[in-house]
Amino acid sequence: MHHSAANEPPYQSNPISQLSQLTIQIQSTALDLSNYECFIGSENIGFIMEGAEQMMFALQSVLGGPNPEGRLGERETRHEFRNKLAVIKGFGDLIRMDLPQNHAAFLSLQRLSERCTRFSAVLDGFAATGLVQTYRMAG
To answer: What is the Cα–Cα distance from 2 to 133, expressed in whole angstroms?
Structure first.
């Protein structure tokens, strides 16, 4: 199952919806990589899939608790997500270096990397919002 940027739904304007959508897309792309096991290796796919699953559980935990926006603005929470993103993106980028650019697995790994980068950018928005709110409260 391949998704191209053209047939993906547009990102929601709500940052929490964006994170949810990106997490689902990251997990879906990770699952798609099993189609390329002979090129990527089951152990590498396992690391990426485990990271994607951990991201899903972490996001569900944050969203299921009180004040999800506040939690996403916390440095520790963002750090936990960044660690998971680093595993997913890092393994994907390393694997991609050994594949030709026109290989379907390369394109899936590139999409995975882009989604991780986008997740991180949306997450940064919570930090910026949190800083503004903290400053306003203090002032």
So the answer is: 40
Residues found in the chain = 139
Return d(Cα 49, Cα 67) in angstroms, integer. Answer: 28
pLDDT single digits (tens) 101-121: 999 999 999 999 999 999 999
Quick one: CATH architecture of 14-138?
Up-down Bundle (1.20)
Any idea where the domains of the chain sit in the sequence? 14-138
Residue 135 has pLDDT above 80, yes or no: no
Structure-block tokens of residue 125? 């928005």
Sign of the four-CA dihedral 93, 50, 14, 133:
negative
pTM above 0.85, yes or no: no
